């Protein structure tokens, strides 16, 4: 069975082909864009991981030499800021 026997004009066939080509192209562009976005995110993550490892190695070396951060490695608890109207309550 051909398109002509089903009552479709050549215009409708060309229009359907153009629509399908547009959809395929649009999805392809989305996939390519997503690939490059993920590639950039992976590179940023790798750089953060390397910076974190370098920082940890640097901190470990400083601790071995007795040159630790705040107060020789003691923990200092964070404090809440007392701004205007802040009563310190959560709710």
From TrEMBL:
Transmembrane segments: 13-36
Ranges of Low complexity composition bias in the record: 53-62
Keywords associated with the record: Membrane, Transmembrane, Transmembrane helix
Region (Disordered): 42-91
Superkingdom per UniProt: Eukaryota
Compositionally biased spans, kind Basic and acidic residues: 42-52
Protein name as catalogued: Uncharacterized protein
The organism's taxonomic lineage, starting at the top: Eukaryota, Sar, Stramenopiles, Ochrophyta, Bacillariophyta
């Amino acid at each position: 069975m051909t398109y002509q026997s089903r009552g479709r004009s050549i215009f409708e066939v060309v229009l359907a082909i153009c629509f399908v080509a547009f959809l395929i192209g649009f999805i392809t562009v989305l996939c390519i864009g997503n690939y490059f976005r993920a590639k950039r995110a992976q590179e940023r993550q790798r750089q953060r991981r390397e910076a974190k490892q370098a920082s940890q190695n640097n901190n470990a070396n400083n601790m071995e030499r007795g040159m630790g951060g705040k107060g020789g490695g003691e923990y200092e608890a964070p404090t809440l800021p007392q701004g205007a109207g802040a009563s310190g309550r959560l709710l």
